[in-house]
Amino acid sequence: MKALVWHGTTDIRCDTVPDPQIEHPRDAIIKVTSCAICGSDLHLYNHFMPGMKNGDIVGHEFMGEVVDVGTDAKGALKVGDRVVVPFTIICGECDQCKRGNFSVCERTNRNGHIAAKAFGHTTAGLFGYTHLTGGYPGGQAEYVRVPFADKTHVKIPNGLTDEQVLFLGDIFPTGWQAAVQCDIEPTDTVAIWGAGPVGQMAIRSAILLGAKQVIAIDRVPERLDMARAGGAITINFDEESVIERLNELTNGKGPEKCIDSVGMEAHAAGTVDAMYDRVKQATMMETDRPHVLREMAYVCRPAGTLSIPGVYGGLLDKIPFGAIMNKGLTIRTGQTHVNRWTDDLLRRIEEGQIDPSFVITHTVPLDQGPDMYKVFRDKQDGCIKVVLKP
Amino acid sequence: MRYETERTRRRGHADTATDTLARGLGIFSIALGIAEVVAPRALARALGMKGQEGLIAGYGVREIATGIGILASKDPTPWIWGRVAGDGLDLATLATALEGRNPKKGNVGIAMAAVAGVTALDVYCAQTLSRESPTPLPPMQDYSDRTGYPGGIQQSHGAAKDFEVPRDFRTPEAMRPYAQPQASQRPTPSM
Ligand SMILES: NC(=O)c1ccc[n+]([C@@H]2O[C@H](COP(=O)([O-])OP(=O)(O)OC[C@H]3O[C@@H](n4cnc5c(N)ncnc54)[C@H](O)[C@@H]3O)[C@@H](O)[C@H]2O)c1
Ligand SMILES: [Zn+2]
Ligand SMILES: [Zn+2]
User: Fold this and answer.
1) Do A180 and A313 sit in the same domain of this protein?
2) Residue B108: inside a domain, yes or no?
3) What spacing in Å lies between the alpha carbon of A98 and ligand 3's midpoint?
4) Inter-chain residue contact A355 with B166, CB threshold 8 Å
5) What is the pTM of this model?
């Protein structure tokens, strides 16, 4: 079959690889009908995330049709079922899964010991996302083996297009959880850094949850355009001072809720801390560039919340913890507990509260995937979200 | 990565030092124009051009219009060329005041030198901008209709009010009154 394979920094190719097989009774094989490139994939493409190996199949946002089911998954799935596969692999039985903390499932990461070395404890297995999280082959491919498939799926009724439901596997619940982490009140201003796909979903989620005012921060004109379409006030961080504008828009008090949907590769418009991060990162003294985190901690209203769906990999430097501590901020973060939200979100799509397909700007065949990584990363051609068709 | 700001992207080419210069010239235009409109008599006196107050004020209006054009337009190039033409007009007008009997000839000379200096800047700026313009970026995609709300934003705003934030995702109870001072139904904590 054809699949997008990681070979090194900015080297992803469409290769022919062996078809996946059932390896365990709880497995299923899915024929992928649509998959997407996620901002998290860019961290692999740019090789900011450690733990990739030459030959790994990437992709963790995908859906398709069940074509083979292991004996233990037969009760839950049958051949022909149409499913979205969450990027977090879940067992459904461990303590964490029972609490709905699916992204820290204790059982699905077959390299749990490596994760435990890096993070203190294991986290869930993820598709196409480094050997730290199990090294499971990803979904930018014609077929995927889904481990723990009896739990790791969302069944999709007929009548909805792939485009409407595909993002239930990652960015929609991610934007949603980011907003839920804010526990939004009708009086709240929610400021969202990053108007990429996750930011766009967070904007819509905050609106659905009834925020008084939503503010989006980015510098890419098309993304700001789309953010405004979703009901956000926008700030271009290349042209305006983010902190000044946010204070202006909140009578000097700062936003109650701040969402970081940028993550470890934040850019900054020529600030001192940004240059500092670049140097430290280049000399391997720091793994991430936490410019957005610093800004959020500084501008957030006292007793407010920092919600962090943006991905960080390792050690961060010069975090103004004094501001966080003295202002009594709450920090909420994590990989998304996808299945915790999907039933509810599927209903909201069916009821027409939201149609996540608005974010798609490019749809191309799978073999053009490698080029699209570059287009997406460099935000060329108005690119916001790429869907690949195997 | 080639990146552009919203403003320059809409104008069609990446931002450069020349764009900054253009904006500076725009501001200069407006400042000079205001001086000409507000104090034409003083200027006329200083240059020995009594009787030409109307003309000076007219030039002031021209300067202000050009300045606004430079600052407000997507592409300042034609407006900067407009400044070059205006500079020519200014120089020609000043030249008429150079005739032998004008006691303020010295001042006129200084004014002409100043205008010539600005003219050089204008020509440089206009030429550089013209050179940059032939390779415009592709037009910006228009996503202003990509709301994501099939029934419109009015209908979706607050549509998820039925959603109950899970207990483990709620703001710690002790912080609520501080975090949401406006919500009147919350009990005020005792001091
Ligand atoms: N928690 C999860 O489970 C989860 C799931 C999906 C994605 N993510 C993460 O969310 C983040 C965003 O994903 P995406 O798909 O939207 O990616 P993206 O790279 O397309 O979007 C990031 C956006 O941030 C903007 N940006 C950069 N620096 C900024 C700054 N200083 N201030 C404001 N904006 C800035 C960029 O211009 C870009 O538009 C990534 O870190 C990704 O790994 C997390
Ligand atoms: Zn993702
Ligand atoms: Zn589990």
Assistant:
1) yes
2) yes
3) 7
4) no
5) 0.80
- Closest listed ligand to the CA of A88: 1
**Which DSSP string do the residues of B115-130 spell out, in sequence order?**
HHHHHHHHHHHHHHHH
Give per-residue pLDDT as tens, A61-110.
999 999 999 999 999 999 999 999 999 999 999 999 999 999 999 999 99
ipTM of the complex: 0.92
Rounded Cα distance, B107 and B88, in Å:
18
Q: Residue A333 and residue A101: Cα distance in Å, rounded? A: 12
Q: What is the pLDDT of residues A204-237, one digit of tens each?
A: 999 999 999 999 999 999 999 999 999 999 999 9
Q: Within this chain, do residues A158 and A194 fall inside the same structural domain, yes or no?
A: no
Which residues does chain A have within 8 Å of residue B144's beta carbon, measured at their own beta carbons?
Answer: 225, 228-229
Q: Is B162 exposed, middle or buried (0-12, 13-18, 19+ CB in 10 A)?
A: exposed
A186 and B158 in contact by Cβ < 8 A?
yes
Segment (H or E) for B58: helix B53-72
In Å, what is the CA distance from B29 to each residue of B84, B115, B117, B118? 12, 12, 14, 10
Using the predicted structure, report yes or no on whether residue A29 has a pLDDT greater than 80.
yes
Q: How many CB atoms lie within 10 A of CB A384?
A: 24
User: Considering only CB atoms, which chain B residues are within 8 Å of A167?
Assistant: none
CATH of the domain at A357: 3.90.180.10
Residue A159 burial (CB count, 10 A): 7
Q: Confirm or reject: Cβ of A40 under 6 Å from ligand 1.
A: yes
Which ligand number lies closest to the CA of residue A218? 1
The answer to whether B180 contacts A359, with C-beta atoms less than 8 Å apart, is no
Same-domain status, A235 and A326: yes
A39 and A184 housed in the same domain: no
Token representation of residue B164: 């109950």
